[in-house]
Amino acid sequence: MSGLLAGKRVLVTGVLMESSIAFHTARLAQEQGAEVVLTGYGRLGLVERIARRLPKPAPLIELDVQDKGHLESLAGRIQERVGGDARLDGVVHSIAFAPQDAMGGNFLATGWDSVATAVEVSAYSFKSLAMACLPLMEERGGSIVGLDFDASTAWPAYDWMGVAKAALEATSRYVARDLGPRGIRCNLVAAGPIKTMAARHIPGFETFREVWETRAPLGWDLSDPEPTARAVVALLSDWFPRTTGEIVHVDGGVHAVGA
Q1: What are the DSSP calls for the chain, one per residue?
Q2: Closest to 232 (Cα-Cα) out of 220, 247, 253
Q3: Domain boundaries in the chain?
Q4: Catalytic sites, residue numbers
Q5: Which terminus of the chain, N or C, has less C-beta within 10 A?
Q6: pLDDT tens profile 143-161
């Protein structure tokens, strides 16, 4: 078998629709030789239907990153589903959520409960997922890749999700620091805006379209998740053996230019 991920097993979270970056990451990972395991939350029937569109079958495991029991049992449930050598070589963190009152221009009025939910689900879960998968990774090492949106500036309407993404970026660096000695790399891919299911719930999403249409030196297609998925697969591979704590921007170059 040939391919960047030949012989590897990768856990991919966040597959909900065929338009999602996570779906295209799972597809490319399979095409590059990986065995893929999926996690889903909530609408598992929908995830199962979308998973059938992948090139190969992929087992699906329920995971709510706010459920301590789900996290503590994750490694064991993966082992039950795949059998034999249940190692993981890669993990894709594609999990983010903020209540509606945490976005849309309500920044100064948002209460702590909503902020806490955004940070826990979108940032703290990176550490939680890493630790849940560690028993299946620490013997051989591997790669954890999270999906990010540039948190170096304040975006219109993004509000506390932007803060949560900044927390994700910091969390990734600290996880990289602590898991590096175990041979585990941790990196993020900061993607430009993609018209996914999650994007529909971001107030003012059309503002992002205008920014990318006018500022991306390489141009940007909001309907094409594949460039981002390719970057994730590359970071999962052995081609970045000494890269960790990094943020790779796949945004057409918007992050690098001014107005």
Answers
A1: --STTTT-EEEE----STTSHHHHHHHHHHHTT-EEEEEE-S-HHHHHHHHTTSSS---EEE--TT-HHHHHHHHHHHHHHH-SS---SEEEE------GGGSSS-GGG--HHHHHHHHIIIIIHHHHHHHHHGGGTTTT-EEEEEEE---SSPPTTTHHHHHHHHHHHHHHHHHHHHHGGGTEEEEEEEEPP---TGGGGSTTHHHHHHHHHHH-TT---TT--HHHHHHHHHHHSTT-TT--S-EEEESTTGGG---
A2: 247
A3: 17-88+98-143+172-192+202-256
A4: 158, 165
A5: C
A6: 999 999 999 999 999 999 9
Q: Give the integer Cα–Cα distance in Å for 86 and 115.
A: 36
Instruction: Please state, rounded to an integer, the average pLDDT across all residues of the chain.
Output: 94
128, 47 in Cβ contact below 8 A? no
Tally Cβ neighbours within 10 Å of residue 56. Answer: 12
The mean per-residue pLDDT over the stretch 206-234 comes to 93
Instruction: Look up residue 205 and give its amino acid.
Output: F
Mean pLDDT within 221-250: 97
pLDDT score of 198: 65
Q: What is the CATH number of domain 17-88+98-143+172-192+202-256?
A: 3.40.50.720
pTM: 0.96
d(CA 211, CA 68): 39
Asked whether residue 21 carries a pLDDT value surpassing 70, the answer given is yes
